[in-house]
Amino acid sequence: MNYIHPKAKGKKTPVLSILKAVAEKSAVMLLILSAWEALPRLGLVDPFLLPPFSDAVGSLVRLFQSGEMFRHIAKSLERSGLGFLAAVAFSIPVGTFMGWNKRIERIADPLLQVCRNTSTLALYPVFILFFGLGETSKIAIILWGTVWPILLNTISGVKEADPLLIKSARSMGISRIGLFTKVVWPMATPSILTGLRLSAATAILMLVAAEMLGADRGLGFMIFYYQERYAIPEMFGGIIFIAVLGVLINFLLVRLESRMTRWKERIVKG
Q: Can you give the pLDDT at residue 8?
């Protein structure tokens, strides 16, 4: 007869805890998808305007099988990737400089607030006017939409770096480069990674707007192409894929954040 310690009776195994957490998080989504499937089939919603969820997924599968989906994905990831990387390359150095130099940050902050609160879609005609309907305007609008979360979170992270640690590092004769790489940036990393997550989500949203005009490939182009031809299941299939892509990118960035900020857990445990 196996002996079970009294304290272990009420404890849940890690597997059961994980399954319960997944079930709780999935319950609302499953309810919405079930309603999406049932309402058109029961005639409560016009199936032409809102086809059942299974029909949209079936159309998405057929797009993958035909190979059409892959060329749209490749072009969209190229555009959003270039815009996102340009935003990272600009925002982190500039944000570090502005967060470190408080006087510059105070002077530039009103301009930053105006720019980040200006609708990106409202500026789309301006980008087309300056850059035309080619790839440059599409990448530029993605860059504009994604640069602000990274820039502002980098400024905030650098500003909030512990001044006592900075003073201690300086007293030990650390170089300026070492001060940033070993003290300032590690402390600012959680805030910077939050900005990266927000910007990655924005890059996917801006992608659809960027591909509305003058595009012949891309997920946004595909959605509007099928909408104009009233191929509604294919249109919803593209929308579902963009939603899944956004969730996947966010998941990967969350994993990256947890790996890069393990030092915080060690400090708390210590």
A: 47
What does the radius of gyration of the chain's CA atoms come to, in whole angstroms? 24
Confidence (pTM)? 0.78
Q: What is the DSSP string of 156-193?
A: HHHHTS-HHHHHHHHHTT--HHHHIIIIIHHHHHHHHH
Alpha-carbon separation of residue 33 from 26, 30, 40, 54 (angstroms): 10, 5, 12, 9
> Per this entry, what is the length of the chain?
270
| Residue 121 DSSP label | G
For 256-267, give the secondary structure using H, E and C: HHHHHCHHHHHH
Give the whole-angstrom CA distance, residue 239 versus residue 199: 19
Q: Is 208's pLDDT higher than 70? A: yes
CA distance 127 to 93: 24
Residue listed under structure tokens 């980008």 = 127
Domains along the chain with CATH numbers: 58-269 (1.10.3720.10)
Report yes or no: 141 and 123 within 8 Å, Cβ to Cβ.
yes
Rounded Cα–Cα distance for residues 172 and 243 (Å):
50
CA 50/CA 43 separation, integer angstroms? 11
